[in-house]
Amino acid sequence: MSDLQRMIEGNLARVRASIAAAATRAGRPPETVKLVGVTKYVGPEVVRALVAAGLRDLAESRPQQLWEKAAALADLPIRWHQVGHLQRNKVRRTVPLVAMVESVDSVRLAAAIDQVAAERGRRVPVLLEVNISGEAAKHGFAPSEVEAALGAVAGLGHMEVRGLMGMAGLEGHLEDARRQFASLRDLRDRLQPVCPNGIALAELSMGMSADFEVAIEEGSTLVRIGSALFEGVL
Ligand SMILES: *Cc1c(COP(=O)(O)O)cnc(C)c1O
Asked: Which atom in ligand 1 lies closest to the alpha carbon of residue 225?
């Protein structure tokens, strides 16, 4: 086994163990938390090592980088997630490549995804991104806008809203992150019973390398982890 492969396997095992421990602390089975590996810092060779180590759900934040990686790694059984801002003029190239778009931040973007999915005869799972930190530079619906957005996208038959995604503020401490994650869970719990027909907000995508344990304790079902998987490699 190469040094790279050994390092990646060690990192993956460590992250999985931390996820399992946090889930157990929260009284949940570890398998209720999905790990998505964010590969934006590394090239295709390192991604290959990660897939060989057993991770299949991977993400990019920039659509262009997702296109490039998907092309370079087309021989691998990767489920790609788009997790950063998706411009509407990039929807047509992105939708065919992804298993999920986690960063739907406008009704117009949702409509564009739905249209391309309809043309391709598929139904694309998505999450609505919510700006839980209130930082102006962050994308996402304001928490107060999410209920109306759910109503507006409910009629889009080629898009399946599976839940909400949020990122903690960059400047804050862990306890600020915890409060923001709890607010996203509360929003989900409040909207779940009043959701339009056909929408179930089962997924809460929250938590990155610095704060995933806190996110899991607050109800995350999907963590998006980059740097912690590449320690020693970057
Ligand atoms: C980069 C990125 C991540 C992963 O960040 P790390 O701190 O490296 O784990 C998660 N989500 C999004 C949207 C990102 O852009």
From this structure: 9
Phi, psi for residue 31 in degrees, rounded to 5: -75, 0
Q: What pLDDT is recorded for position 172?
A: 78
Nearest to 97, CA basis, from 118, 119, 124, 130: 124
Nearest CA residue ID for atom 11, ligand 1: 224
pLDDT computed for residue 137 by the predictor: 87
Structure token pair of residue 144: 């107060």
- The model's confidence at residue 181, banded by pLDDT at 50, 70 and 90, is very high
Is the domain covering 3-229 a CATH 3.40.50.1100 domain? no
Instruction: Identify the residue whose C-alpha is closest to ligand 1 atom 10.
Output: 224
Residues within 6 Å of ligand 1 by CB: 38, 40, 61, 83-84, 167, 208-210, 224-228
Fill in the DSSP letter of residue 141.
Answer: B
